Amino acid sequence: MKEKLIELLTKLKPGIDYQNQTNLISGGYFTSLEIMRLVMLLQDEFDVTISPLYIVPENFESVDAMLHLIELVEDD
Amino acid sequence: MGAYEQLIYLLIFSSIVYLIYMVFVKKYRYLVLLVFSLGIFLFVSRFMTILMLASTLIVYLFAYFIGKRNKNLKLQKETLTKDEYKALKKKVQKVNKRLLILGVILNLSLLIGFKYINFFDSILNTIFSWFHADLSIPMFKILLPLGISYYTLANTGYLIDVYRNKYEASTNYLDVLLFTCYFPCLLEGPISHYDILLPQLKQPHSFNKEDAKKGLLIILIGLFKKLVIADRFAIFVTNIFGLNVKGPMLILGILCFTIQLYCEFSGIIDIVRGVSLMYSIKLEKNFEQPFFSSSVSEFWRRWHISLGAWFRDYVFYPVSMSRPLMALRRKLSGKVSTFFETFIPSCIVLFVIWSLTGLWHGASVKYLVYGLYYYLIMVFELIIDRFISHETNQKKGVKITRMILTFFFVNIGMILFRCNTLTDFGNYIANIFRHSNYRFTEVFEISELIIGFVMIIGLLVIEGFQNHKVDIYQKYQSFPAVCRYLLAVGLVFIIVIFGVYGAGYLPPDPIYGGF
Q1: B93 CB within 8 Å of a chain A CB
Q2: Residue B510 — φ and ψ, nearest 5°?
Q3: The domain boundary residue, chosen from B164, B187, B206
Q4: Does B174 share its domain with B132?
Q5: pLDDT, tens only, B16-44
Q6: Which of residues 14-73 of A touch B (CB under 8 A)?
Q7: Which residue range(s) make up the domain with A36?
Q8: Distance of residue B215 Cα from the nearest chain A Cα, in angstroms
Q9: What is the pLDDT of residues B119-135, one digit of tens each?
Q10: Nearest-CA residue of chain A relative to B312?
């Protein structure tokens, strides 16, 4: 799942060390507009529905945070 | 009531309420806030208070029914199979969505009815005139009710949050009423979130020396910004517009208005936050050193933060995640470059956001253009950022250049905001390039201008430190007691000596209070 997510992120925005980067939002790597596209990709790829409630910077700062978010919305 | 009277009444009123609050039965202290908030509402808005009560009742009832259905669904989760639960959830959400739409329409119709009716009237009349129709809809003489643009957004946010299951709906109308009419936020916000503000309002606070001290200091800073800086620059701005000045002096006029608006709005918000902090109620930030932004998008994340956050949470997300936008993204996926996959939907979402932001500021074509002006710059920034890497943007030289450019574009936006019509704006810009019709000293009093600039530079230096994450209050606290008192007393003296007030001076009404 992690590899799939990294592949998705690289497709969206290449040239970022997704394995180690933990400040994707606070570091300015992603804008809110790009996040919205990422949300669509996550929804399609992992067959989940992400409510706007979960669209907070903490859930997109790192690959691990995004994986945690997917698990969270799967249970919802 | 004039601006100073409002400010003075607010401070006297706050002090009286504060004293009563602190000696009242602890468990029911929130009732003091509720009764006095309603009191000030009735005093200022008179019969228009009914609008606020109606708006609160609408969101309370709709949130109550939506919340009840959400709660029942949650209770049934354990007893149902996964598929049964999914089916029930879909059904509940469908009805809830209808309730939400109806609730939001009813609530916003109050705002639209009072704020935008004449705007729609004028549009219709213009259309009639194009077709030479012998038809004209009369304009309504309506006074905009106090705080309607702020509390309507705040309690619409509450309704949407309940729908989204962010928290449970309140079962007590008085709770929603207290959240809506909390008196310090009446004039200029900030637009608060229910889950952040209400628990603080309901909590029985006791006197906290640290919060009271910090609150007082924030009030003083607010008074400094309003009385010493904003009202000083307001005189120059009034001269520029009142005398119909021409020539390069108008460039200074733009700068003066930017300073006036920032110091007035952020100063009043400081007073509001300071008053609240004295009760140990921490309001959300509304400004974060906006003039240190290196893009216009960043500027709007630091200026009137609570309005931007409201549009982000309740307009940007729903529009971005709406079916047509999602379908468009899917359609574009793989067919255009990665950049355009993000860019095209972004242009649509930003258009909606900035048209609405413009119209929130006022019901006229000028404000719509004001919003779209920022929209165009943001679209331009998206294109520019396509060619500048993240690393390049972090370089000091690039950052400073972008900061200066942002300041320039914001100032143009400010003058568009200040001019009454688009024609006035066009004339203002054209007049910059004409010969001066007044001597500099006839428009600007040199000594006052110097004092004003010394003060604003002082403020910007402090904000520069804050921009580098320096906690100014912590620094202040680290000083020996004598220095702290000297600084506080010094600030009072500066406000008393350099504040613009007194006989013969007519203070300007708070600009954002008009919304």
Answers
A1: no
A2: -60, 125
A3: B206
A4: yes
A5: 999 999 999 998 999 999 999 999 889 88
A6: 28-29, 31-34, 36-37, 39-40, 43-44, 51-53, 55
A7: 2-14+22-75
A8: 29
A9: 777 777 778 777 777 67
A10: A32
